[in-house]
Amino acid sequence: MSEDRPATGSVEGHAVEGHADEDHAHDPAAALRRLRRRVGLPPGFNLAGAVRHVAWRNTFHLIGGFRVVGSAPYEAMVVVANHQSHADTPALIAAFPAPYKPVVVAAGDYWFDDPWKARLLKLAIGAVPVRRHGGGGYESLIEGATEVLGSGSSLLVFPEGTRSTDGQLGRFRSGALRIAQEFDVPILPVAVVGTRELLAKKGRLTPGPVEVRVGHPLDPHELTDMAPLVAQIEGMLAAGPPVPSRSRTWRVLRNVMSGPAGMVGAVAWGFAEAVSLPVTSEMYLVLVAASHPRRVVPAAACLAVGSVAGILVTRALTARGEQPPAPLTTRAMRERAAADLAAAGARGIWRQALNGIPVKVYAAAAGDARVPAGPLAAHALGARGVRSLAVGAAVGAAAGAGAPLLRRFYGPYLAVAGATFAVGLGLVVRRWSR
């Protein structure tokens, strides 16, 4: 998926090697030997190819999910696939990592008849044109193969020549097999599943999952026709509809939240935040519990219980002159907490819910002021419970509505949520540093 570039050891380069090449310029056997020498080493990492690969992969994840089943050898090869949709080529580019640098040959009469369309196609998928009508089709395919395989890239070919309208395989033309034999590279069958439902011929975009199933590479010299390749692709297509992709992070956290570990984690997080952890207890709901929307509110209740326990521990330690570390807190925060408790006693902790001051600051101030543990626990449970359950209800509703995206993009979601919290925390600390 990188920018096409002239083949290493092109025809022009070989034409000046000596008289033997000139004498046999029209000798098919000599041409065959030159073509075989023209297969290059895999090009390795390419920035443009990596950008295309990641962009298309994330696009498919965004509009319905994407999964790759199987793997391919890392070498130049001819990749043949079924053809049902204009989304097939992007799906194949998304399936093969950038070092493979897969390049597709596209119908010149359809995709390259307009200069702007041709430039767009080059930018999006890095295609090279071939003729499919009016004769010269195989010679055109040879030209495209020379450019692609000569640079060590893999050549993507749709042997049916056009998109299927009913999902059934059409007749596989033998040009791809002949190319693999002449260039002496493996031929790899691949099945693309779900693209016809996603974007059918003359149809509209309908979000849904796409799956690329990679078969077993074959030695082209052991084949006499396309039947073994067709058989592999038919077998992969018969394996069923595409399976929606799932984020590994989402699966792990979902399993945690499905059992008692999720509730124990909520109690522990709430406790740690009320003692020393510089991350609000509700972030547990955002980062962890959101993977299982139905468990968010129970987790919020557990957070409140853990928070009250941590408040009482911090109060007791501070009263004995052993206050735990309180990172990212300021003198102004401590003064405000002390003033609230002095003015309203244990009820002062209710003011913490909206002012951004960490609850551990109020717990420490309660220890310094010798606020009785019983009233403090009661008011803390009320204040922390109301706040946690309110946030839990909001997070649960949002996670439920966004579940299809969270299942596929939980990793990026965590990154955005973490960055947002860091910015918010910085603003709160800055506000209370004045």
Structure in words:
This protein has helices at residues 11-14, 19-23, 28-37, 47-63, 88-95, 108-111, 115-125, 137-149, 175-183, 195-198, 227-237, 248-258, 260-275, 283-287, 296-319, 331-344, 352-355, 359-368, 373-401, 403-431, and strands at 66-69, 78-81, 102-107, 128-130, 154-157, 187-193, 210-214. The protein is an alpha/beta fold and 434 residues long. It has a seven-stranded mixed beta sheet with strand order 1-7-6-2-5-3-4, sandwiched between helices.
Structural features:
434 residues, 7 strands, 55% helix, elongated
Shape: elongated
As laid out across the biggest beta sheet, the strand order is: 1-7-6-2-5-3-4
Q: Note the total helix count.
A: 20
* Range of helix content: 40-55%
What value does the average pLDDT take? 84
Determine the N-to-C terminus distance.
53 Å
- What is the count of β-strands? 7
Cα gyration radius (Å): 32 Å
Strand content: 5-15%
The largest β sheet comes out as: 7 strands, mixed
The H-and-E topology, N to C, reads as: HHHHEEHEHHEHEHEHEHHHHHHHHHH
Tell me the structural class.
alpha/beta
Poorly predicted parts: 1-26, 28-37
